[in-house]
């Protein structure tokens, strides 16, 4: 059900996306009306959260059932402490095809009454609240003039980024995300010498209720979108292999790969941005994975001209890895919930050259007979199917491979790929079932469709 306006994008970006979703191949296949309908559904579903939360269970540390039980107990404790109701129940389901996934239904939208006291938060903070987070102080942009800790307030997300920091009210475009209790006075948020830290508003009546995972079973339950978990399985790592994760931070997929290898072998994680490196290390440590080696490095330069490896770290000689994951930096237009983005069309389109450079390095670093998986969390053709078409033309040594599991849709028309090639691609397309999934469908079915927008291609190097 739609409760929010469609995602707020710059007009040029909306037009660009429309041209993608109404490209000539799609129009010829499904007609103008259906193509336009899918596009409108895309804009609508992007601003809403998926109807479940996906958790990757650390099955290298404990059996799935044990983790499911412990998680249920922890979440019950959490819910009991924030609810007067003694009979709280937590539904946690397994996925029929993916052995390390737990699914928790999200309850929403719920009938929550708006109050007269309003706190306004940034769009990113608003999205986090819709996925179960409390409001952290740095996310607050406006609050009532005399707000004190303990006041009950309604929280709104600033859709266009137009609210002035420190304002006492805001009349611009905003979306209600729920009610909460202020944990600090207004002066502590806006007038302190140091920027405020910690929870600013504890959500008690969120519009979408999903458990807060802050500190819940840190080593055993890892929050990860379902398509991201699928990537690890599609790569198919095996114990003893040497695997490269080219764009690794914060390390969700790196850790999954190492866990699937039973921590035997080597997972090399490269990340260009230095201050993201610690997150990868922390995640590896939290999940007790020792086979991960992390380096701050620009992966476009990760191929050494020397056929013999001089040092342990990058650059690496060609054909050094059994499998390579290129989870590419991308325009991120598949992320949900996302109520608005101020990105220009130029920014949205800026990723393709970098993705191609990274792809060149990926192919060179992969052994013959090795597997390369390319993934993005965006919905454009240029970063997905067109990149695949370019790759198949540029590298005759590559062939597309079937994916296991394949629970998303096939690739989108528009890049000149054949029907067989499109069937080998996996595109998570929430717009295809938006508003039709219905709560009657089993959760695992809904979970496969009501995802973030995501794309996966698997290649073999011959
Ligand atoms: C989509 S995110 C990766 C998410 C990660 N694979 C995970 O599952 O947790 C892309 C990452 O690539 C990094 N990145 C961008 N350009 C890069 C480059 N040239 N070399 C290495 N990392 C790069 C970004 O800083 C960002 O952290």
From TrEMBL:
The gene is NSUN6. GO terms for molecular function: RNA binding; RNA methyltransferase activity. This is NOP2/Sun RNA methyltransferase 6. Transmembrane segments: none annotated. Residues 146-462 form the SAM-dependent MTase RsmB/NOP-type domain. SMART domains: PUA. Keywords: Methyltransferase, RNA-binding, S-adenosyl-L-methionine, Transferase. It holds the Pfam family Methyltr_RsmB-F.
